[in-house]
């Protein structure tokens, strides 16, 4: 009986040791950055690890700027970004011995959203610009109720904010009274709880809690992305030309039947 117990204990110990060693020796990859890209990255990591049990992929958000900063600092293998890298970021990376390489992984629309009770259905780029600059302060000026507009924007580390600043504000600045949110999900939550709010989010984050607004008469969707006025590419940046596990992940992300199926399944527009 003692021998049997000893044998069971030994088998259990070896099994646990093997599991621990398997985890310790697993190939590891880190992704950081954009909350817009986060739904793609999270699902892609899950499915890639299902296909490759010897791989561990860590995914976190924090914004495009933070993801690129992590690449510049050498603390991530892949930086997820909803904007292209800036020249000054490239220069800092090179100075640190890192060489960012961009890979387009999807297309997206940045969608203005309002409360579901808001009667406004369409806004022009000029109206959006004036609302976010604080030059239009009342919904009545754009066909809504006679109530003050609550402007909700993203913080400056957000790639979504930077694309909005470029394509809607045309280099202008969001007026100081705007409420800043750290993620797409936070914008959805804030707008859904305020009848007079307006915000903007990536296409994948649209849900029944908020109402999308047309821009220049075009409703954002996978079918209208090419014609939609506030569209953009989504990126993953690697440190130098990828090799090993990073190369395998990037090839998988761009494969029409693998990563690109995930892009479509989470609500973005695939490359193909």
The CATH superfamily of the largest domain is Periplasmic binding protein-like II
Quick one: CATH class of the largest domain?
A: Alpha Beta
State the shape.
globular
Number of strands: 11
The domain tally reads: 2
Keywords:
single chain; 272 residues; D-Maltodextrin-Binding Protein, domain 2; 2 domains; 9-stranded mixed beta sheet; two-stranded parallel sheet; 23% strand; globular
Structure report:
- This protein has helices at 2-25, 38-51, 64-73, 87-95, 125-133, 159-167, 184-192, 244-254, 259-265; strands at residues 27-33, 55-62, 78-81, 100-114, 122-123, 150-154, 179-181, 197-202, 211-212, 214-215, 231-239.
- The relative contact order is 0.19.
- It is globular.
- The chain starts with a helix and ends in a 7-residue tail after the last helix.
- The model is unreliable at 3-15 and 17-23 (pLDDT under 50).
- Helix 3 runs parallel beside helix 4.
- The longest helix has 24 residues, at 2-25.
- It has 272 residues and is α/β, with parallel strands linked by helices.
- It is built from nine helices and eleven strands.
- The strands form two sheets. Strands 1, 2, 3, 4, 6, 7, 8, 9 and 11 form a nine-stranded mixed sheet that branches.
- It has two domains: 2-106 and 234-265, D-Maltodextrin-Binding Protein, domain 2; 108-215, 3-Layer(aba) Sandwich (D-Maltodextrin-Binding Protein, domain 2).
């Amino acid at each position: 009986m003692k021998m049997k117990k000893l044998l069971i204990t030994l088998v259990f110990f070896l099994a646990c040791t093997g599991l621990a060693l398997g985890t310790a020796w697993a190939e590891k990859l880190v992704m950081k950055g954009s909350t817009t890209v986060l739904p793609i990255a999270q699902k892609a990591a899950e499915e890639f690890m299902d296909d490759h049990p010897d791989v561990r992929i860590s995914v976190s958000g924090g914004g495009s700027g933070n993801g690129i900063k992590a690449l510049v600092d050498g603390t991530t293998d892949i930086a997820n970004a909803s904007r292209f890298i800036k020249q000054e970021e490239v220069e800092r990376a090179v100075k640190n011995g890192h060489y960012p390489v961009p890979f387009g992984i999807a297309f997206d629309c940045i969608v203005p959203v309002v409360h579901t009770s808001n009667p406004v259905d369409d806004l022009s780029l000029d109206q959006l610009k004036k609302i976010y600059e604080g030059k239009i302060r009342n919904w009545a000026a754009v066909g809504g109720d006679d109530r003050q507009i609550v402007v909700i924007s993203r913080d400056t580390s957000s790639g979504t904010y930077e694309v909005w600043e470029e394509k809607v504000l045309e280099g202008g600045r969001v007026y100081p009274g705007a409420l800043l949110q750290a993620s797409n999900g936070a914008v959805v939550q804030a707008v859904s709880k305020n009848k007079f709010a307006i915000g903007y989010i990536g296409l994948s984050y649209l849900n029944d809690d908020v109402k999308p607004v047309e821009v220049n008469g075009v409703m954002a969707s996978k079918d209208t992305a090419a014609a939609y006025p506030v569209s953009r590419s989504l990126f993953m940046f690697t440190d130098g030309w990828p090799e090993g596990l990073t190369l395998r992940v990037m090839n998988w992300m761009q494969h029409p039947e693998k990563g690109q199926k995930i892009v479509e399944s989470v609500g973005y527009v695939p490359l193909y």
